[in-house]
Amino acid sequence: MTTTQDIDVIVLGAGPAGENVADRVARAGLSVAIVEAERAGGECSYWACMPSKALLRPVEVRAAAGRMPGVGTALLDTDAVLARRDDFTEHFDDSSQADWIGSTGALLVRGRGRLAGDRRVEVDHADGTTTALAATRAVVVATGSAPTLPPVDGIEDVGAWTNREATSAPRVPGSMIVLGGGAVGCELATAWQRLGSSVTLVQHGERLLPTMEPSAGERVLASLRDDGADVRLGTSLRAVRRDGSTVHADLDDGTTVDADEFVVAAGRRPGTSGLGLDTVGLSDGDVLAVDDTTLVTAVEGGWLHAVGDCTDRAKLTHMGKYQARACADVIVARSKGETDGLDRPYAKTTTTAERTAVTQVVFTDPQVASVGLTEAAARDAGLPVDVVSYDIGSTAGGALQADGYSGLATIVVDRERRVIVGATLVGQDVTDMLHAATVMVVGEVTLERLWHAVPSFPTMSEVWLRLLETYGL
């Protein structure tokens, strides 16, 4: 007979979102178990955010040096780049993250967890044993997402790389095909092309980064092509096959592309397969729809929460951590009988930024940083908007940042409320300017008030003044 252990909060998944829930709940004095089938730290730490940026930063620095007279263009030591990446992933040893989880007071349970009914979780361990847990307060699903393979003939048999293989490769492939022109595909193409691979990027749509402002995709496209990448827009993959060490990709334009490796960056699915969702009235593999307090809306009783990529909210690490903080605060408040006002706008227990101020950075060269609505999304929402753009290189700060600086700042203005509802920055070193735009959007700061936010000279932040002037202030 399996003994069931009672615990206040059970978290399924020890990625960034799950870790944040567990830490915050434990610090509030509740008992918490966090269940993980793979490595503590999750996808972001080992196969996504951290290793991909470790690959991208050196090639970005080298390119930036080439735009600065007197600095020169240092030779790129690819072995050193890969070694530094491996240091950031701790060589796939998660002991430091496991130790950190333990230091919070949370219990790390290693094994594959699944729901087993109302407030119940079963964990299957590698040795064949099972642990049964019962949550007295809440269960939180934070199982992330997994890459999908599109329905293309032969794709299951060619040894396709996903983000996991593409960020952990021990060597630079001579050539590769990247399928998908979203953020992941563009970042991987940038990194590996500049590290010495010959990259062909195949994008079904007519532009790269299709959910962002068109100017972003256009500038990233130009950069990739300048680097020597072969970018095929408006092109679909019909079939793929491997002949020994070579992958052959048949495209719908009648051509065939050959490469050493084939990378799929064409979407992800929620990590909810095999999670026991059927035991709580849901279907295996479902996207978990949640309300602003992170409760799963289709499950009654107010006990099942979900955060991160497995939900119907923004699928970005920082947004998952934001959801996690709200989730933990909701659970703690309800444990104390504090239920009033948890879902009020801008409470710490709500995720209202999901609708108005999602932030995203694409670490290509140029970098792309955005917050809030694009022009198209704003118009689709029925907002009366004006759009203003300004060349960042025309500011003194931009000109000093790099010779021939090429960058563009765009704001989307609600003309009735006279507030910025979206901003996109494209260019070298723009990522750290994003938070200023985020504060503008979240704070709904009027243009007249922003006029008195004086940018320092000579910095690239001067572009905020130039945008206001261009708008007519």
Account of the 3D structure:
- The N and C termini lie far apart (74 Å).
- This protein has three domains: 176 residues, FAD/NAD(P)-binding domain; 112 residues, FAD/NAD(P)-binding domain (3-Layer(bba) Sandwich); 106 residues, Enolase-like, domain 1, CATH 3.30.390.
- Helix content is 31%, strand content 24%.
- The strands form five sheets. Strands 1, 2, 3, 4, 5, 6 and 16 form a seven-stranded mixed beta sheet that branches. Strands 17-18-21-20-19 form a five-stranded antiparallel beta sheet, sandwiched between helices. A four-stranded parallel beta sheet has the order 10-9-8-14.
- It contains 15 helices and 21 strands.
- By secondary structure, it is of the alpha/beta class.
- The mean pLDDT is 96.
- β12 and β13 form a beta hairpin.
Q: Would you tell me which CATH topology of the largest domain applies?
A: FAD/NAD(P)-binding domain
Mean pLDDT score: 96
Number of domains: 3
**Structural class, judged by helices and strands?**
alpha/beta
Share in β-strands: 15-25%
CATH architecture of the largest domain: 3-Layer(bba) Sandwich
Major sheet attributes: 7 strands, mixed
| N-to-C CA distance | 74 Å
Keywords: FAD, Flavoprotein, NAD, Oxidoreductase
Domain Pyridine nucleotide-disulphide oxidoreductase dimerisation: 359-464
Organism: Actinomycetospora aeridis
Enzyme class: oxidoreductase
